[in-house]
Every structure is written in C-alpha cells, then in structure tokens.
Amino acid sequence: MRCLVCFLLLAAAHVPANAQDACSEHTSVLDEISCLELKLTRQQQALDSLTRQMEKMDRRLCRRLGGAWLNDKCSAFMGATEGAVPATGRWAQCKAELGGDYVPCNAFQALALSGLYKIPNQQYYWLHAGGTAGQASVQTLWRGTHSSVPIAVQPNCPADHTVSFFHSWDTNHVDSIGCLQNSRELSVVCCRVR
Q1: Phi, psi (deg, nearest 5) at residue 70
Q2: CA dihedral for 75, 79, 85, 90, sign (positive or negative)
Q3: How far is CA 78 from CA 105, 130, 153, 168, 178, in A?
Q4: How far apart are CA 9 and CA 87, in angstroms?
C-alpha cells in the first residue's frame, strides 16, 4: 500500500525554483495569496505526476507477477476463495468469486507460489489435478516433459477423492499435496489463465 503522506511530503518538497523566486518579492497580501496559490498549484502538479508514475509502476509489477490490471487495480495471478464447496464445485467457485479468468491451480502452482500470493495458512484447499483444463494429471505433465525423472508429484487419488493442498500448518509441517474426499467442503486456490 502506498503511503499518501509520503507523496504529499515529496510533492511539497518539490516546488520549482521559479515558483520560490516569484514569491520572494511580494509587496501586498494579495501578492502573497497569489504566490501561495502558485506554490499550491505546482505542488499539486508534482503530486499528480508522482501518482501517475506510481500507477505505471503498479501496472508493470502487476503484469510481471502474472496478474492483470483491471478497473484501476491489480487482479492477482493467484487467490483463494472465501467460500467452501465440495470438489465438484471448485471450478465454478473460482469463477464466481475471482472472475471468469480463474480456474483451480495445479499442485506445482500451489506449492511454489502460495506464500508469495499470501494464501491464508493452516487451511485445506481444492486444486486441479492437471496443469491445464483437460490435462490428465500433474504426474502426466511432469513425466511427459521430464521422462527421466520417475517421481510422483502428487498422489494418485481414488475415484471419490480429489487432489487437495495443505497449507503451512505449523513449524513442524510444510505445504503438501494429498487427497481428500470429494464431499468435504473446502476453499479453492485459484490461478489466472489469461
């Protein structure tokens, strides 16, 4: 969050020299008022310029972190839903809460990025088993691109279970992927696809 007071102080300190010179020789109260109005106008212009520059930086940072700038704010790459749903409702929940460009994240995304995007700790979340919609599983993705590495990235869940994410339980446990029964109601970790 930007500090508005910091901007005001910077803008106040950035009064062009010609504005100060013009005010050094006022002879009446009206001249002094005009001089103060000139200083205020220049300070407001400097503040407006700083605000525009900070917005440009915010937009760039948002895009570089995988988000999109929509309606004058950053729509982050990853977020967690507030509502909890059974596994079958995870796709609709992402779209309902975060927008049409969001789908459940895969295991790689959740494990690698949940801390960066401030996903709430000590909770379970539903994920998507594949890297993209329609992909069989993260195991398929991993083995298809790294065939010499025979490790399983996520569990092979039974038919009535879905891949889930366990996020930062305590100092003795780290993020992990597992299977939970489809009937449980959990929040969803969602990722932006566009």
Answers
A1: -130, 135
A2: positive
A3: 8, 16, 20, 17, 20
A4: 51
Burial class (CB in 10 A: 0-12, 13-18, 19+), 6: exposed
Tens digit of each residue's pLDDT (9 = 90 or more) over 146-158: 444 444 456 778 8
Q: How far is residue 173 from each of residues 49, 123, 133, 177, 185, measured CA to CA in Å?
A: 47, 12, 30, 12, 22
What are 124-139's pLDDT values in tens digits?
999 987 645 444 444 4
Burial class (CB in 10 A: 0-12, 13-18, 19+), 167: buried
Dump pLDDT digits (tens) for 64-81: 888 888 888 888 999 999
29-33, 79-83, 91-95, 143-147: range with lowest mean pLDDT = 143-147
Contact between residue 43 and residue 10 where contact means Cβ atoms under 8 Å apart: no
Give the 3-state secondary structure of residue 144.
helix
Per-domain residue ranges for the chain?
4-64, 74-192
Pick the CATH number of 74-192 from 3.10.100, 3.60.21, 3.30.2420, 3.30.30: 3.10.100
Identify whether the C-beta of residue 175 lies closer than 8 Å to the C-beta of residue 113: no
